[in-house]
Amino acid sequence: FLRRMETAEGLASPAVLSLTAHIAAYRHGAPWLDELRHYVAGTMAMVGERLRAGLPGVDWTPPQAGYLAWIDLRPLGIDEARLQEELVRTEKVAIMPGGTYGTPGFVRLNVGCPRAKAERGVDALVRAAARLRTDGA
After folding, report:
1. Where are the beta strands (DSSP E) in the chain?
2. CA atoms of 84 and 118, how far apart (whole Å)
3. Considering only CA atoms, which of 81, 55, 77 is closest in space to residue 135?
4. What is the pLDDT along the chain (137 residues), one digit of tens a residue?
């Protein structure tokens, strides 16, 4: 493992505690990872439910992997800069605008956190987007 890390990954001297944790995760981490996947899937389902209820014009599907919810707000006709301002100033949340990552019109909601925090984030997004939508719905 150490030889592989040095030759293929360019890491000549990993920290001992990091190496020990890495090995332990591979040997004993499967149950924890299964629980984490289940938790994130439940959080993603919550995001979908709240988006459908609060922003019917948004058609969102959870990702196949990961903990980032990319939400396409283009159907709502919302200006990304105004949405970001509304989220930060009024809702006191930081949800990253897609333009930061080359996908304007989307927002990136990180749900790799306690579910209550993700709930606050998606609820704030729904409120802010509902106030700013220009499609007349």
Report:
1. 68-72, 96-97, 106-110
2. 17
3. 77
4. 777 777 777 777 777 888 889 889 999 999 999 999 999 999 999 999 999 999 988 989 999 999 999 999 999 999 999 999 999 999 999 988 899 999 999 999 999 999 999 999 999 999 999 999 864 44
Report pTM: 0.81
Q: Which of 47, 49, 53 is nearest to 130 (CA)?
A: 53
Tell me the domain boundaries of the chain. 41-132
Q: Is 136 left (phi over 0), alpha (psi -120 to 50) or beta?
A: left
Amino acid (one-letter) located at 70:
W
Does CATH place domain 41-132 in 3.90.1150.10? yes
Classify each residue of 27-52 as buried b or exposed e, where b means 16 or more C-beta atoms within 10 Å of its C-beta: eeeeeeeeeeeeebeebbeebbebbe
Tallying the residues shown for the chain, one arrives at 137
Query: What is the amino acid identity at position 16?
Result: V
